[in-house]
Amino acid sequence: MSKFTFLFVVLIVAVVVPSLVASGVQAGTPSVVITSVIITRVVPGNTGLVFMTINGKGFGSSGPKTVGAEFGASGVDTLKSSSAPSLGICDIRGGVQQWNAGGKYGSSINVGSGCTVGGYNNIGVYLNAWTSTQVVLGGFGNALGGAAFYHIHTGDTLVFVVFGPNNSGYSTYVTYYSGPSA
After folding, report:
1. Is the pLDDT of residue 102 over 70?
2. Total number of domains constituting the chain
3. Domain residues for 157?
4. Beta-carbon contacts of residue 69 (< 8 Å; ≥ 6 apart)
5. How would you label 93-111 residue by residue, b for 16+ Cβ within 10 Å and e otherwise?
6. Mind listing the pLDDT tens digit for each residue in 47-76?
């Protein structure tokens, strides 16, 4: 390997790696980490019944503060606060964000990977369980799928974000939806 090739490789690593770290976790020590997202059950024709398990650490054992989804939609939104954890999910199709679910923050928060959560949101989630290492979702509210305005399609990119309690940072996890379109 020539000196030029070695220098080029070192420069790429020095430039790329910090940007990857910065987009997944807020500055400081990462205390919130998503290690996996498992979509455990998908009921064809009913997007509301997409069961998801988010695994990791630092989620906070007390669970989030919640409020009913907007405009009469079913499910709940988690509220980002200085003391409680929260979550959000973005659907990206063709490089463009289609919708976000599960979070209501008063203002939009760009968490990277093409995902902006919060702000205007009327897709609730069914929150089945919340521990410091696992969040279990029982699906999306009725604002998604069927005759609703928002839809999910096979191959869509899903970006999950969990905000830790006490402003302890956040973590994102990117995966692809392989269930039926609705």
Report:
1. yes
2. 1
3. 31-176
4. 75, 76, 77, 121, 122, 123, 124, 141, 143
5. eeeebebbbbbbbeeebeb
6. 557 889 999 999 998 888 887 776 556 777
